[in-house]
Amino acid sequence: MMFPALAHAVAAESIRVGALALDREHAIEMAGDLLVAGGRATPEYSQQMLDALAEHGPYMVIAPGLALVHGRPSEAVLETGLSLLTLAQPVVFGNQANDPVRLVIGLCAFDHSSHIEMMQELAMFLMNDANVNLLLNAVNSEQIRELF
Amino acid sequence: MQSILNRFESSSKLACDNKGMKIIAVCGMGIGTSVLLKMNAEKVLRQLELEATVEAASLEIARASRDAQIILTTPDLVPQLQGLPSEVIAIEHFFDLEEITEKLSKSLL
Fold first, then answer.
1. Active-site residue, selected from the candidate residues A8, A26, A70, A115
2. Domains along chain B?
3. ipTM of model
């Protein structure tokens, strides 16, 4: 296993491929639902991620086609984790440099430090374009989990 | 032997020149995007042989800080980081080390 912290962070129930999102809010809600399904957050966390978007704008689209959506550590976070959502149709977030979004990564962190190892692996993973393409082209969640 | 000494001298000079320099990587919350930006900025600084502390921080914390030479962030957050003594550098693609290298070099070298 090349990315053990990622494998631990992404529950099998927290992956969805080829989802249809109506707009950016819908995509963020789905990423939140996946964190809930994986037992990492409560449904309130989705609203906290939407609040972050409303407050700070679409800054979370940090690379072409890739959004990292998250809120603050809060009572809505049960355990540090990630969700992965690939979109069947790209969605516009309003980010000039990196729109439209095809891959949404939901993040919930229990505190400010316990997720650092996971983030290091996430950075290494996403740095490699081949990994990102494999992720985007996966047809089921097993194919994605095999990448870790 | 002499060349090794020279190399040691030049690298320690560089390290010394930038000693204590502080860079803040900023996102809305200080736990997600800023952490990724911090990691990639550290990688670039190592390649450039520059010594600096890079901290990940929320907008709120960054706005209250006065001791950072550089603030790294995304273009969308630049308007919220005006009026600080730090130079604000916007990074569009967080995983493009060339972009980070180019922008940091322009500012630091």
1. A70
2. 2-108 (3.40.50.2300)
3. 0.88
